[in-house]
């Protein structure tokens, strides 16, 4: 869905995802980085433009480009499956260039997304779905305080045709103060 939300803090700026970001995003992805994703690898400007266009057109999805303070495109993330009447959304469709792995970008983005979800949108639940083979992302979700709810067996087909399990995690509104404190402590 098209939106005008911009979120800023801790060295990152989340801006509405647009085709102008496609070239920079395409340069960040490769087969190993994209492992477990369910859409084909968008490693050309043309295929990333199609990915961006689809993200922007998806109802209930607020897609963002992640920019650094210097304006460099670091990756993309989204709030999706947004159902305000039910007080829920999911955070995902997230990827960063390897330069920003293990740094401040992901915790900063999660803080901004969750803060927007819980404090601006007044949601009760933000969920996460992660391919069970993506141990790096699972560890990041658990480090921020997301609660593992279960595993959907054989629920996803990756872009390479392999079938994998989906781990479902969430943060609920009563847990948000603790999660926020953890993220703020990590960001110093």
UniProtKB/TrEMBL annotation:
Residues 13-146 form the N-acetyltransferase domain. It comes from Sanguibacter suaedae. GO terms for molecular function: acyltransferase activity, transferring groups other than amino-acyl groups. This is GNAT family N-acetyltransferase.
């Amino acid at each position: 869905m098209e939106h005008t939300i911009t979120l800023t803090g801790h060295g990152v700026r989340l801006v509405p995802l647009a085709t102008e970001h496609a070239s920079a995003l395409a340069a960040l992805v490769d087969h190993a980085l994209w492992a477990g994703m369910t859409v084909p690898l968008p490693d050309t400007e043309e295929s990333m433009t199609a990915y961006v266009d689809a993200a922007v057109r998806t109802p209930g999805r607020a897609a963002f480009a992640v920019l650094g303070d210097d304006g460099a495109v670091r990756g993309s993330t989204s709030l999706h499956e947004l159902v305000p009447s039910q007080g829920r959304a999911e955070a995902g469709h997230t990827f960063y260039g390897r330069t920003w792995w293990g740094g401040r970008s992901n915790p900063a983005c999660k803080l901004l997304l969750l803060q927007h979800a819980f404090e601006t949108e007044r949601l009760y639940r933000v969920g996460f779905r992660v391919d069970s083979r993506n141990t790096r992302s699972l560890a990041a979700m658990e480090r921020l305080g997301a609660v593992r709810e279960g595993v959907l067996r054989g629920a996803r087909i990756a872009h390479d045709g392999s079938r994998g399990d989906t781990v479902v995690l969430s943060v609920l509104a009563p847990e948000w103060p603790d999660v926020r404190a953890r993220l703020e402590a990590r960001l110093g």
